[in-house]
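Technical note accompanying the year-one report. For the benefit of new consortium partners, we illustrate the data format agreed upon in the data management plan: each record pairs a sequence with a structure-token string. No post-processing was applied to the example shown here.
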Amino acid sequence: MQRQKIVKRSLQRVHRRILRTGGAWYKGKWYNQDTASALTNRLYQQQTPASGTPAPHDSRANSRAQVHSVTTHLPSQSPRHLQVYTWNVGGLGGGLYDEILYYIHRHPVDVLVIQETKWRFTSRWDTHQYFFVHSGSSAADFKQGGLLTIVAKRLVDPGTLRYVDPLPGRLLRVQFYRHSQPCDVLNFYQHTWKATDHIRRLRTQALDHLTRTIHMIPKRSLMIIGGDFNATCVHSAPHVGRCVMERSQLWATDQEDLQALILGLHLCALNTFQSQHPHHTYMWGTQQSQIDYLFVRCDMADGLSRQSYAMHDHPLGAWRGGARHFLVHAQIPTHWRPWSGHASPSVAPAVDRHAIADALSGKADPRIQAFRTDVQSALNPAPASISELHDTVHTLALKHFPKPVPVRGPRPWQDGTLQQYASRMWGHLRSLRKWAARKDAHSSLQALFQCWRHSTLHLRMHRDARQQGRELRKQRRLSLLSDADQAIRQGQSRQFYQLIDKLAPKGRFRKFQMCKGGDLLTPAEELEVMRKHFVQLFNHDRPGNSTLSSTSLAETADTSFQVCSHELQVYLDKLPARKAGAPSTAPGAVWRACSDLISPTLAGLLNQRWDHSPLTPPEPWVRATLSLLLKPHKSGSAPKDFRPIGLLDALGKASISMLMSKIRADLEAYIRTSPQFAYLTGRSTSDALRRVYVHNTAARAMRMPSTRDPHYKRAGGKPVTLQGALQVCLDLTSAFDFVPRHLIAEALQDAGITGAPAQLLLSWLHACSYDLYVEGKCAHIPTNRGVKQGCPASPLLFAAFMTLITRRLSSRLTPEWVAQYLTMFADDFHVGKCFYGYNELEPGDNYVLSFEHPWNQFLTQCLADPDPVAIAPAQDAPVDAARSILTTGRVLRADPTSCDTTRNTSHIVSVSGSVASSTLFFNMATGAHSSQAAEEVLGQLQSCFGGVLANKRSAEEPGQMPPDQGDRAQKTGRGAIALGGSGKGFQGKGGRRRPGGRQQGRATPSSDNRSYASGSTLDSEDAELLHLLAKAVVRHEDTLSVLRRSTGWVFWIRSGENSILPMLADLAKTWYGKANSQEIQPNRVSLRVALMWGIMTCLKDKLTGLTQDQQAFAIRNTWADTNGSWNYQKWDAHHQTLIVDTTRPPLSTPQALESLGALLQVLNGDTLTRFAATQEIRADAQGKITFNADISLRAPGSEALYQELVRLQGSALFQIIGVQFKPEGYNRPPLIRRIHQLAG
């Protein structure tokens, strides 16, 4: 056979690369000089016709082959380097996404980082070749971002891929291990430059996050940084090469920050050394800039990696017009470690429980009969233990019903027609560039025609590809809808919900992973964090109570517990066929398929075990595997974001269900004595809701027209003295996990359940433990409290425990009162009562406080709080005080651990705000009892000044103070209120000036110290005395500064839009009017208290009624994070602005409202001794007004007031009303500094 010359261009390129670099990729395989002969034979065979005669030359066919070729020009590649790309796509639509997928699956792309997708979600998914990790945000400043990192699966050791987005949509870190070597890929997208302070802060914040993230990456890790930095670099060897564009001084004036980051972190910009290609990575019309970079550490950059450049001839997205970024490619060297190869972990085989369930439901499957035959043969002779029985049946189930490998359905980019469109489109683009590169292209008619032709065909292919992609996606949706309709018609609910979940998932998939302080945790560290959390959750510090055994029940218990095989078979047949069980165990469908065969053997083994005391379950049945379900609206970055569910052995579930059947009748009869509407036959959610609706309907029936309605008065209507409704809603957090087990034993004894069933049940309960698995690693978690979520016995045991608590309530109240006004559904409580007058309100008050008293004991025991919650007795809350109180709700705290707080909130909501005209919001006593005087102060503040906060500010400017108020305020100007230094009950800046301005006594010496120049003895003594007096004043002020460091605070209130200065002016004016008319007592409600109360109450009202636009504005200004929590701020002296304080965790809105409420509770004239302005305040004041405040040291509640101010200090929450404050510092005032300077 005659050897022909190689004609195919792609094969020629492969041949040249092998000769030039020693190797090349061809159709997914690597060829070097040793294997080049096999490739050469293959190439010549492809060019030789089957008949042995040379094929005729067809230029048209060759031209078409060139146009339709898929291979694009790529630089020579090395097997010891990673092929890394970065690209700003400027918006990633469906058509471009399909094009990228088709390209990366046809070319050796290892890592691709994409910026500006404009997707707003965060998720992770994969194909058969690549992992995809996306980070996005819907915040106003971040929704234009969006980062997508694509990593080839061949690089990643199984189970090692993790990610974290320190700045969602702007900074994404993906970490994985390649042959046990850590690799970190950072995807970064800087904010577009704009000469505003807000954009400068955002760009500085982004670079700060990038710097902190780089510092967290160890030196041993292969770090790759790619992205759009929206700034240019300057030459600085060896960090930045000479191939950089000239920097514009009028654009991005903070570009020095990027240069400082490169030099300070010893990075190397790879695409700044190649001089054979254009330098710019961005182009818009005639504007060109170099703003996209790939960085590695300098010690990782070799000669080949420094050949990185922007690929201007790349076909991806070439059909787009307008501004365009170019793909930047680099080859990153890797450490070759043949001694540290990572073995892929073997996947444990699983049983296809759905196939067994289908066979049990009537679907013909011959494997069922074969399985039953093998089980019957394996049971002869009978196994010697329950574990041996389980292993035998499980092995046979794996043999007959192995779980098949899931098959991925075809994706739109895998469609042959779409791929053909992409190939032809790229071919026409390459031909267009080839014709346009000719020297005579602008004057040759042939070249112009060919350019026009290929350009038209390129755009046509793109339109056809987009249309084909839309049709494929539409066809997929219609196919899923058709399958769902067919599934629901056939009664296959499971398949129906699976299809619906594909069409409309509840949320984006988030794989379990955790981070700490923005740093990723290894699987071992994640396991340890989760283990510590669940050990604290399932155990408390007083094991003496929880380990209460069933000794009292065992005294009368039988010595044995017999099991009937027929009864055991019944509960084996009731096992859910499709429900997942513990790992490496046989699912319920397996036992249902052979229940009649194994029930006699299992009954014999259990009778042999439970024939004598102690009665204990088999050890595999009490060990559950924790399955973590992400709670709604949680990020999954903390252990408390997950709900623990215990996966049990199916045999154990059937056995404990059989055990519960022997005591179910007595236990349900006991639970029915309480108003519990969960877990019982004949009671449902509708019944519980109906009781609540009846109460609300009765409350609404009490609604009366307003007494201010003249028509109602004319008709002779008279308002009642007092009427309203009282509701208490209580929800327990993690109620199943906090139940004391000794109280369950008491509940069983109270229900009359004794003997062997009770003893076995309690032994089962006390022996419970969990196994937690993270990436193949396991941790064992013992327990001494709580009941398992997922165990068949847990619901009734929990209901019995709640019935015990309800009976204790009945002992303090009456059974009739509890049955009429209390409603329970699992761990949710509702108490509702209507009252008509004070004669019914006062007993209701006693009932509510009596209702809380047993909960004090429950919270102490169930939540393991070492300090019981103090609940005031009924007689400590007189009704007279309630007539002037206007508050809402209370919070009970019980800390099971020092770091975790469980809050149980009971809201006492009066429905008469929309139901009755005479509304009463009743407040139960707080943990630390507030005095009656403090409650009266709060009542007077709300009743007298609530209108000022409600109206905020009238349209008229405040006029001049009346003449009769001259003794209370200085009339320093029109419309001005002097808030500092005067007025009853107000401690201002000091004593008043003497009238007339006359100076009595010795004259003050001049600033040039001429009075010291006299040579007389008297003058010398006076000078010395004055000098000593000045030093004493300075020392006295220093001592006061040290004391005020513990009591003093400085407040700044900003003027302008949304300022509260007009409200404070109106509040002061209202206070003077109320004080003159004797509506308030100035010695009880001072002006300083009224002003501080107004600030905190206004902030609380604004925080409660915050709109979505206001929340978005707060997030945009970095006052709040994306989760709605309020950041802390600190002063940055370098940039002269406030920045986010990352050392303090953000304050959530419920925490902020809690602090504000606690602060208002202790605010009175005794705790707040000073709140004075340093200058006059006007409604139209400009700039900032400074207020000095002092907190008492000894008054009751002063320590709580100081601690709440410390907690709120620095929070950006106060920015919404234009307020900032900080503790008093040690700086001397200007006057004292001047005295110290003159005194020497």
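Partners are asked to follow this layout when depositing records. The chain has a mean pLDDT of 76.
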